[in-house]
Amino acid sequence: MLDLIIKGATVIDGSGSQGAVLDVGIEGDRIVSIVSSIDVESTEILDARGLTLVPGFIDVHSHDDFHVLIEPEVRHNILQGITTAIVGNCGFGAAGSASGKIQMKAINEPSIELPDWTGYAGYLEQVDKTSPVLNIAALIGHHTARREAMGGVADRPPTETELAAMLANVTEGMEAGAVGISTGLVYEPGRYARTEEVVSLSKVVGRYGGLYVSHMRDEGGGLLDSVRETLHIGEASDTGVQISHHKSVGKTNWGMVTHSLEMIEDAVARGLDVTADQYPYTARSTMLFALVQNGTFNDGADGPMGKSEPSEVLLCSVPGYADFEGRTLQSFVEEFDLPGEETANKLLSDYSDSILVAAFGMDEGDVRMVMAHDSTMIGTDGLDRGSKPHPRAWGTYPRILGKYVREEGVISLENAIYKMTYMPASKFGIVNRGLIKEGYFADLVIFDPDTVSDLATYQNSRVGPAGMPHVIVNGKLAVRNGKHLGTRSGRALRRGEIY
């Protein structure tokens, strides 16, 4: 007797192959049967005729390290079909816990007191103890390791003792099952690290078969130099490379992704394992402080985060000042009667130093070009903080399926599902997930390809999608008919762990 049979769906298995109408049988947390018709008893039968069944989506660029502990229902992820999230991106890691809590306050300040944990082993144990709605794999955060070893933000190279402490942090993380290391070389304190420091740490990661994942040093005018640095780190450390949120920011830099994609192609041709991820929007989301620090609003040369006009910057989260959220920076320029950079500094000094914003500055044509490229998989880079977070936190996957697959034909449905499932599972060492295959874990999404769409907007962003009725995690229904059931069957995933 089976626990669940999904009847009559068009099954797109994640490999890139065409779909077929099949029944899928689940026993416990595994897929046990995939045939044209299952005629055995089952505790539950789900009629999915006319719908499409795919593997659960793997968000390779998540910042929900603490969110899964604070709000383990993680509504913004599960409602859009994310069944596994890879946390610890852009250098923001969870261990050591004290440094991680300080570092993470910049993007996701905990609303409750979190327990302490020891290393990444302790963090992953805490995930298992909490049992969130979805699975979690972790990257080691370079920021956090550097802050812990060097006693805070330090604009200098580490001493031998400090580098040894960082290496120990990375070794512990890889031993615990982390899938790699991430950097955020445009943010503090990672921006003060020289290339050689990152190579040293990545060599440890490479010995364990992990990845080097980078929010690069410059995504504006210096994009190509940043890609060169990233590829060099991968080659020098013998480590696979993942370029985070591949884009070119600032109008003067639009079209530069043509060349960065060529650089990736050349690297692959000479044997380097290099891929990238992307969110399907023309606005990024980041800290207002970081935009100021990187010269986004001044009259000087183009900086590492490109240029955005105050009218192109929306305040997403302003702790203590919810009425500011959803307003443009331009509205404060007019209210304060100050230039853009001075206005931003006044907001940071007088109101909150932890303001998150959505900042436009990318080209839609670039978004389509990167999305269609063989190197690109999908990640939300979502930050569900404040009353008006960037809509990517709630809408990334249905937006691709609705806008870019069905409406615009930028990529095929089968290719989109591959980029969301088996491609990231293969790259990040997520074992027995990412495919609909007998013996694999039953992480599954059922949606209507004719109606699936994102409903999250910049002014009303905390809204789940249309046309995505059912989500299953480890064999348990987490979403039924578009409603979150409160089921929490997720677990910590450790690199290369055989189940």
Please tell me about this protein's structure.
This protein is α/β, with parallel strands linked by helices and 499 residues long. The protein has three domains: 2-55 and 434-452 and 466-484, Urease, subunit C, domain 1 (Roll), CATH 2.30.40; 57-282 and 362-390, Metal-dependent hydrolases (TIM Barrel); 287-359, no CATH class. Helix content is 33%, strand content 20%. The protein has 16 helices and 21 strands. It has helices spanning 67-70, 75-78, 97-108, 119-130, 142-150, 160-176, 195-207, 223-237, 257-269, 288-293, 329-336, 340-350, 364-372, 392-407, 413-420, 422-428; strands at residues 2-11, 20-27, 30-35, 42-47, 52-55, 57-59, 82-87, 135-138, 140-141, 180-184, 211-215, 240-243, 274-278, 283-287, 313-317, 356-360, 376-378, 444-447, 470-473, 476-480, 483-484. Strands 1, 2, 3, 4, 5, 18, 19, 20 and 21 form a nine-stranded mixed sheet that branches. A six-stranded parallel sheet has the order 9-10-11-12-13-17, sandwiched between helices. A three-stranded parallel sheet has the order 6-7-8. Strand 11, helix 8 and strand 12 (240-243) form a beta-alpha-beta unit. The radius of gyration is 22 Å and the shape is globular. The mean pLDDT is 96.
